[in-house]
Amino acid sequence: MRFSTRYQSDNQNSNLILEDAPRPTRIGYIKGIIESFVGDRNSYRRHSNRSVPLDTLETHEKFIALIRDEADPWDYDNQSSWSALVEHLKSCTWLEFYDFVELLGRLLLEVDDDPFSLVKTTHFKNYQSKVNALLSEDRIGWSLNEMSTLNRQVPESLSKRIKATERQLADDFQAARAHYQKAQNFIYSYPIDEANCVKEIISALESVVRVLLPGSTTLGDAIKTFKKQGKYPKHLLEALEKLYVHSNATPMVRHGHPEVGSVSIQEAELALHLGIAYIRYLISVNEQV
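Now predict its structure.
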């Protein structure tokens, strides 16, 4: 990691960048990544003879079509198609820049999956690794998945718990699994929807307790029954009850409150983490009985 990156991370706001593609990131992407995958085959550029899987002009044309831009500003008569692409990537909106990042990955996946190719290639895996390393170093809050879709970065420790929880939500818990996956998508995909993340993780909890307590209709009813059973610590149930009350009382989350309000990303992530912990806890304790 560069000294400047380490310094900024230690001395400035350490929040991940979610709604920007800073110029250093764009330059790092152009000079450090795409030159390995895109090239002008008839260009004077020094690496033009190097074999690359994608043609610059064709790739740029697909980008222009994807973002529905006019081609005229990028039809340079006296410059190479590489110069046009570079200029476009430097000046486009941050949303369009990440459109290109995803597009290039999909094009490389097509190359790797070409059934007529005599040589098996792994261009996308190489590209994905380089892109995610760059985004991580620049504290960009997105990472490129195996389908060439950008999702919010998930801390490694949380990622392991998410996968473990999904494995638990099988068979009788399929309804809870659907709500659980929606909650993840709302907070870790773009556009981020904090309120619906909270709604879905609470719905996942309700689906779990309906299986554990047949006949219960709401999480609140289930908590009352759990308290009578005595197999769960009282204070843990009270904390779960507070989470449930918070979700019901927060505007724009559970029941369409008329007040204007919003849920912060920090609150949504806290609710998700607590929901994951409670889902795993309730299922595990029930299995021991």
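The mean pLDDT is 84.
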